[in-house]
Amino acid sequence: MRQPLTLKDHHHEHRLFSLRLLVAVALVLVLSLVLIGRMAWLQIAQHSRFTTLSDNNRVLTQAMSPPRGLITDRNGEILAVNRPDFTLELAVEQSADLNDTLNRIRQLIPLTDDDLERFERRRTSARRPWEPIPLRGRLTEEEIARIAVHQHELPGARVTASPVRYYPHSHLFSHVLGYVNRLSAEDLDNMTLAEQRNYSGTHYYGRTGVERYYEHRLHGQVGYRQVETNARGRILRVLEEQPPVPGDDLRLSLDLKVQQAAYDALGERRGAVVAIDPRDGSVLAFVSRPGFDPNLFVTGISHKDYARYQQDHDHPLFNRALQGRYPPGSTVKPMLGLAGLDAGVTSWERTIHDPGYFSLEGNPHRYRDWKRWGHGQVDMEKAVVQSCDTYFYDMGFRLGIDRMHDFMVGFSIGEATGIDLLNESEGNMPSREWKRAARNAPWFHGDTINTSIGQGFMLTTPLQLAVATAILANDGHQVVPTLAADETHPPLRPDITLKDPRDWERMKHAMEAVVHSNRGTGRVMAKDARYHMGAKSGTAQVFSVGQEETYNEEELAERMLDHALIVSFAPVENPAIAVAVMVENGRHGGSVAGPVARQVMDAWLLDEDGNLNIPEPLARPPIQNALPTQASTTAQATRTAAP
Questions:
Q1: Which of 501, 505, 481 is CA-nearest to residue 491?
Q2: DSSP readout, 337-362?
Q3: How far apart are CA 123 and CA 135, in angstroms?
């Protein structure tokens, strides 16, 4: 049976199609209106905002680090300079696979573990994530060529040439100049907002020495430039530029010839030399030996090199001249003698008998003289010339620690000198109050006796001894050691005046006899001298010897021997240089430290032909806020140090 034939309802289908078409047209129309509205909102309402964002993507503001100021000695010899260094930098944001990029770079140039560790440390502490981070510096021409050939395989990598600090004299000025190295996040945290802005784009910061103290002068002012870049970050053109202001050049009072003489005179021995012009406080030489190579620290010292310095028993990173604390020994006897004279407890004519020891009444303990059989009858001049300990034991006991302390701090003994360097050690000029605070113990007569020959609790730095000698040579006029040639610092203490001003000249002539008389303890240093000098030698004991024991240096290890010291000035009639020398474990001040001081003074006072030619002092600005002159306050070892 055949199925009935079904006919299509064309009218219904037409209506359904029309409805669907109407819905589709309406939907398209609505979406078009939404799109047009969105475009209108973006193009009109948000035009300013997106224009700014577009410009920020296209235009970048780059900080331009200022060239660091040069450092020269007083004669214009370059001590610190900037020279180009080619560095491979890596912008992490532009590298899709950082590890892959680093591996490709390692195939082209050597990268040590230290290089990678420093890179990772800088990356994690980066101030701005888009800034390129140094990966390896000091690239050779061959390494630069390899990187250039494979540049397309190293996204984010680029070779830049930037000025890097260089110290042409290396070890010679290491402790006084210091060094710069990479600016850290911690450095920025310690800055004000204005300082942080000025260090935008800066990679290096003064870390120690003159570089640190005068960082504000050497750094300069940051510059800026606006550049147009493409989508890959490549600079297309420079739109605007404000050049940086270079840091000021810094001229120091140091003299290269004198510094070299001091460094060479110490030889391979550990020690320090400080030379000062007493006429204006100019520091002529500032040596601590052994030194180090500051160039290793500039771009980041390797673990191997740093460990070598740290493990060196001679401590090359330790600034002995500024921070070394040593008993001054007999070198302070002239100052102590002036204290006794001014207080009236002794005189130039007063004599005592020296049997080779000093003892307190009712006390069997003997404070021995360095000369076991004694010096016989001794007055003040002989006590200075032959360094008679017994005379100063007696005088110091009469003077007392209170007057001794008040007088000696006027010479910067145990006090900051005011030098333009950071982290200066103050040493120690002991007092009753100091011992009670530091040792929780009372002051004893034995402490006074030990202090009277520069031993016991008294500790000084070579810098302090040079300043004290300059003050004595200057008849009590205060001297502030200064490294910058155009700086003048006001004194920290008033001038020292004596009741009898003639004592200054008499003490200087006694120090002259130390080197120019047959019995002076420093006579070896005056041989064939073209000028007259004054000096006082001394030794500082490293350990104590018992009452019944004998000091035998032949049986001691080298590092247990006494330190050798000497202070000196010249010429006697018009002092133009004051020198302090300390040689660790040098044993004898006169014969070991004396020749070092002589070479330093010769370098300053003699011309190339060996004739006396005293240089003129620097033309410094006048001292501001100078202290008024005031009258000075008049004031444990059982083996004493040899002169």
A1: 481
A2: HHHHHHHTS--SS--EEESSEE--TT
A3: 10
Q: Is 123 exposed, middle or buried (0-12, 13-18, 19+ CB in 10 A)?
A: middle
Cα–Cα distance, 453 to 337 (Å, whole number) = 10
Contact 137/85 with Cβ under 8 angstroms? yes
Q: How many CB atoms lie within 10 A of CB 509?
A: 15
For 423-427, which contacts have Cβ atoms below 8 Å and span 24 or more sequence positions? 423/319, 423/322, 423/323, 424/322, 424/323, 424/461, 424/463, 425/322, 425/323, 425/324, 425/325, 425/461, 427/325, 427/458, 427/459, 427/460, 427/461, 427/464
Residue 581 has which token pair?
A: 């020398």
Per residue in 313-347, pLDDT (tens digit) is 999 999 999 999 999 999 999 999 999 999 999 99
Task: State how far Cα 242 lies from the chain centre.
Answer: 33
> How far apart are alpha carbons 389 and 386 in whole angstroms?
9
Which residues form the catalytic set?
330
User: Does the predicted model carry a pTM greater than 0.85?
Assistant: no
Cβ(579)–Cβ(568) below 8 Å: yes
**Which residues does residue 61 pair with via DSSP β-bridges, in sequence order?**
226
Characterize 530-555 residue by residue with b for buried, 16 or more Cβ atoms within 10 angstroms of its Cβ, and e for exposed.
ebebbbbbbbbbbeeeeeeeebeeee
Amino acid at 510: A
Average pLDDT value for residue range 442-453: 96
DSSP assignment letter at 606: B
Write out pLDDT tens, residues 65-115. Answer: 899 999 999 999 999 999 988 888 888 777 778 888 888 888 888 888 888
pLDDT digits (tens, 9 = 90+) for 335-391: 999 999 999 999 999 999 999 999 998 888 899 998 999 999 999 999 999 999 999
Maximum Cα interatomic distance, the chain, rounded to a whole number of Å: 163
Token output for 421:
């360097």
DSSP letters spanning 552-578? -GGGS-GGGSPEEEEEEEE-SSS--EE
CA distances from 117 to 112, 303, 621 (A): 9, 10, 48
Structure tokens at 4: 């009935």
pLDDT-derived band at 276 (thresholds 50, 70, 90) equals very high
Q: Which residue is associated with the tokens 């390494």?
A: 143
Q: What confidence score (pLDDT) does residue 241 get? A: 82
Cβ contact 533:570 at 8 Å: yes
pLDDT tens digits for 457-509? 999 999 999 999 999 999 999 999 999 999 988 999 999 999 999 999 999 99
The confidence score (pLDDT) of residue 642 equals 39
Decide the pairing of beta strands 71-72 and 250-251.
parallel
pLDDT, position 231: 57
- The full length of the chain comes to 643
Nearest one of 475, 589, 618, 424 to 521, comparing CA atoms: 589
